[in-house]
Specification:
The chain is an alpha+beta fold. It is built from eight helices and five strands. Helix 1 runs parallel beside helix 8.
Length: 225
């Protein structure tokens, strides 16, 4: 049995058990309250679980299996959303932010989410580093490169994608994303936000099982079932 399979089995057992570890979690230690709370984008009766991320972030790529474990562990009322950050211009994060928001506006972001990580970190199609080195590529992948990727994976017209990515609408979404990330005091990726109210402090957690348990607790705290 692989380590991931074993952890998944443990998470399935955890998901079937009541949320009873609230006493382990202290506001201001393992999670922080966001003031003022941020508006969520999910429907009535849903609890938003947000990942602030970047496709250019190696830690975010490594975190994707944990996100899959969370999907198995959380109740049906929890709904995942993603907010792209642009912290690291030297490694193309602003381009990836723009590309994600364009893909989201065109309705293809979810379909290509894992494939985009793979294109950066596995196949090298959109890699930001020269293979086998720590040297940043010159030039870095462009929006046109991302458009070709999305065309291949989702069938979206690449010209339509580039036009959307360079539109005033996406410029506005970028400003809004940057402002929201600042308002939530997010300084690193990946960061999890529950229902616009609570920021998970991963550095205070001992491992993935604790992280999953804490997110379950916060979702339940917001009425998630």
């Amino acid at each position: 049995m692989s380590r991931f399979t074993a952890l998944l089995a443990a998470v399935v057992i955890l998901a079937q058990s009541p949320v009873g570890h609230g006493a382990n979690w202290t506001e201001g230690v393992q999670y922080a309250r966001i003031t003022p709370p941020q508006q969520t984008t999910v429907g009535t009766g849903k609890v938003e679980v947000m990942e602030v991320f970047s496709y250019g972030c190696p830690a975010c790529n490594a975190f994707q299996p944990v996100m899959e474990l969370l999907r198995h562990a959380l109740p049906p009322s929890a709904q995942f959303v993603y907010l792209p950050a642009a912290f690291n211009a030297a490694e193309d994060w602003p381009m990836f932010q723009r590309a994600y928001l364009a893909a989201q506006a065109l309705g293809v972001a979810d379909k290509a989410h894992q494939a985009m990580f793979d294109a950066v970190w596995k196949t090298g199609e959109l890699a930001t580093f020269t293979p086998g080195t720590n040297r940043i590529k010159d030039p870095l992948p462009s929006i046109a490169d991302a458009a070709r990727f999305y065309a291949r994976v989702t069938g979206i017209n690449p010209q339509q994608f580039v036009a959307m990515a360079n539109s005033f609408s996406i410029d506005g979404k970028i400003r809004a994303a940057d402002a929201q990330i600042a308002a939530m005091h997010v300084g690193e990726t990946p960061t999890l936000i529950v229902n616009g109210k609570y920021r998970v402090i991963r550095s205070e957690l001992k491992g993935n099982e604790e992280l999953i348990d804490l997110v379950r607790y916060l979702v339940a705290k917001e009425g998630g079932t």
